[in-house]
Specification:
Layout: E1 3-8, H1 13-22, E2 31-37, E3 45-50, H2 54-60, E4 68-74, E5 89-90, E6 96-104, H3 107-116, H4 129-137, H5 142-151, E7 155-163, E8 169-174, E9 179-183, E10 186-190, E11 202-205, E12 210-214, E13 219-223, E14 226-228, E15 232-234, H6 250-256, H7 258-269, E16 285-289, H8 291-308, E17 312-316, H9 317-320, E18 330-335, H10 341-352, E19 356-361, H11 367-371, E20 374-377, H12 390-404, H13 411-421, H14 424-431, H15 435-445, E21 450-455, H16 460-474, E22 477-482, E23 499-504, H17 510-521, E24 526-532, E25 544-548, H18 556-574
Helix pairs in contact: 1-2, 4-5, 7-12, 7-14, 8-12, 8-16, 14-18, 15-18, 16-18
The structure holds 2-deoxy-2-amino glucitol-6-phosphate (AGP).
């Protein structure tokens, strides 16, 4: 899942490409590169690339003079981050340059054939076969050569092709996302809208099978050889949404936005009509998601079963696609980016099986929102930091509202919970007062190699999410457990000083949770508890306790999660980790 951009217009392409690319680094950042078609008689393609982040690429790149170009930031799938494997990739003669996001699954056989035909393939990547195929099929018409090349490709791709001999860009899409930004006498191409929002908010979303020929004044899109029109959309996003606005990291900025995000999602989804809620005749439900969104699904499962009594199961998108699934007649998919390949593939599988899909997503115009039967948008705004925070909280709010709106909900309980939901923004705001103490506690975690998170009931998924955050941004091995499971094995890992983060919510699990805490303490663990502000007894059983404002136990995951986000953030900060762009990860996982 890389980030690709293209520009064609009257302005110098290099600074624009570098600026757009820097806004796509959440998609991959282990290497980057740029290619520009020179503005002199040669029209040669000049390339600069290396295993560096975009900032370094900008600093080191010689000035590339030209008005048409392409650029790429990489998340390695085939071949480690290196100068040779970085994009753009060229053909033997340097006439065609290609940037690609996706995976060409049959590249090995194509590569063998091209080598037999005399092509000099120099990298380990799947992508490099594409410029060589274009070179093989080129008879003076770039569009035709690209169309021929993609007929032999298998897998997923979004590609932009730059050519020495033709003043245009040709793009093709299958599986990976691509948008075209429209402005008078210049055009922008990108994997995602945040890259180009500073230049235009008028975009076209390409669909699978589309091939586009783009010049500074025209866009011609064809599909199966037929010219087609794609609707122009307006993107409601502003530059501030994708800037740090004085914060050190996007992650802490996005954590601090959560009171507003809760408010906006409540207000916006209050308009949710029953049309968008779970159908009244639904007998069972499936929820499909990945990573943090999967944990939101587990909390959704708990709330739906607790309040509606509808049997609900939650599956990893990556598991659904490779086994026989008995789908109920309604499936909810949860995906922040709306571009997670494992989720999109399962949606396409379900559509083929005639199963209706309801997508909960944060990105208008995303593929999931375009292919689902119905869509609920969370109002978290653009989330740049790779670690999901505000999008998770917004997903919980959307799941609560979806459940409360169900016709079988008792009006009294609906009212009570809806009223309690409206108190959450202020309660979330209060949690930020805990930051100095959370920072102190994080100091202890910085020197630990193993950390355990335990919870019960609706807060077990919160333990899973807390451990995921610590893993992905602080690089500490962390495990989330249903507290009752510790004694069935993991307890063997506990010894003096090992931190156990225990979520002791005021619900029917409380007593059992205190027992689990005591079992851990008895093995010398250093117990950090999250508890209700009215809990007057927990302090004696633990080493550190963070008290969160009282709320209904079904809503408590919202407040507990924010504390764990802050704990992970400060631990990573104290360890000097690259918080917004953790190693080996990317914000939206567009490959299976
Ligand atoms: C979470 O911090 C990670 N970025 C990752 O687990 C993420 O939740 C997962 O890739 C799913 O992404 P999605 O919600 O965009 O589908």
């Amino acid at each position: 899942m890389c980030g690709i951009v293209g520009y064609i217009g009257k302005r110098q392409a290099e600074p624009i490409l570098m600026d757009c690319l820097s806004r796509l680094e959440y998609r991959g950042y282990d290497s980057s590169g740029i290619a520009v078609r020179q503005n002199d008689n040669s029209n040669n393609i000049s390339v600069y690339k290396n295993a560096v982040r975009v900032e370094a690429l900008k600093e080191k790149s010689p000035h590339l003079n030209g008005n048409t170009g392409i650029a790429h930031t990489r998340w390695a799938t085939h071949g480690q981050p290196s100068l040779l494997n970085a994009h753009p990739h060229l053909d033997c003669s340097g006439r065609f340059a290609v940037v690609h996001n996706g995976i060409i699954t049959n590249y090995q056989e194509l590569k063998q054939q091209l080598i037999i035909e005399g092509h000099d393939i120099i990298s380990e990547t799947d992508t490099e076969v594409i410029p060589h195929l274009i070179e093989k099929y080129y008879k003076g018409n770039l569009e035709e050569a690209v169309k021929l090349a993609i007929t032999v490709l298998k897998g997923s791709y979004a590609i932009v092709v730059l050519c020495k001999d033709e003043p245009k860009l040709v793009v093709a899409k299958m599986g990976s996302p691509m948008v075209i930004g429209i402005s008078d006498c210049e055009k922008f191409i990108a994997s995602d809208t945040p890259a180009i929002i500073s230049y235009t908010n008028k975009v076209i979303y390409l669909e699978d099978g589309d091939v586009g020929v783009i010049t500074e004044n025209s866009i011609v899109i064809t599909k199966n050889g037929e010219e087609i029109r794609r609707e122009e959309k307006q993107v409601h996003m502003c530059k501030a949404d994708i800037q740090k606005n004085g914060y050190v990291h996007f992650m802490i900025k996005e954590i601090h936005e959560q009171p507003r995000v809760i408010r906006d999602t409540i207000v916006d989804n209050a308009l949710l009509t029953t049309k968008l809620t779970i159908g009244k005749d639904v007998q069972s439900l499936s929820i499909i998601a990945c990573g943090t969104s999967y944990y939101a699904g587990l909390i959704g499962e708990y709330v739906i079963e607790e309040l509606l009594g509808i049997p609900t199961n939650v599956s990893f998108g990556s598991e659904v696609n490779h086994r026989r699934m008995i789908f109920p007649n309604e499936v909810i998919v949860i995906t922040q980016s709306g571009e997670t390949a494992d989720v999109l593939t399962s949606m396409k599988t379900m559509q083929k099986a005639g199963v209706k899909t309801l997508a909960i997503t944060n990105v208008p115009g995303s593929t999931a929102s375009r292919i689902s039967d119905r869509t609920i948008y969370t109002k978290a705004g653009p989330e740049v930091s790779v670690a999901a925070t505000k999008s998770f909280i917004a997903q919980l709010i959307a799941l609560y509202q979806l459940t409360l709106l169900h016709p079988s909900m008792s009006p009294g309980l609906r009212e009570q919970l809806a009223a309690e939901l409206n108190t959450l923004p202020a309660k979330a705001e209060k949690l930020f007062d805990l930051e100095p103490r959370i920072m102190e506690c994080a100091r202890y975690l910085t020197q630990c190699t193993d950390v355990f998170f335990i919870g019960r009931g609706i807060n077990y998924p919160v333990a899973l999410e807390g451990s995921l955050k610590l893993k992905e941004i602080a690089y500490i091995h962390a495990e989330g457990y249903a507290a009752g499971e510790l004694k069935h094995g993991p307890l063997a890992l506990l010894c003096a000083g090992v931190p156990v983060i225990a979520i002791a919510a005021q619900d029917s699990n409380y007593e059992a949770m205190v027992t689990s805490i005591k079992e851990a303490k008895a093995r010398g663990a250093y117990v950090i508890a999250l508890a209700d502000e009215n809990d007057k007894t927990i302090d004696d059983s633990v080493d550190v306790v963070f008290k969160v404002p009282h709320t209904h136990f079904l809503l408590s995951p919202v407040l507990h999660t924010i504390v764990l986000q802050l704990l992970a953030y400060f631990t990573a900060k104290l360890r000097g980790c690259p918080i917004d762009f953790p190693r080996n990860l990317a914000k939206s996982v567009t490959v299976e």
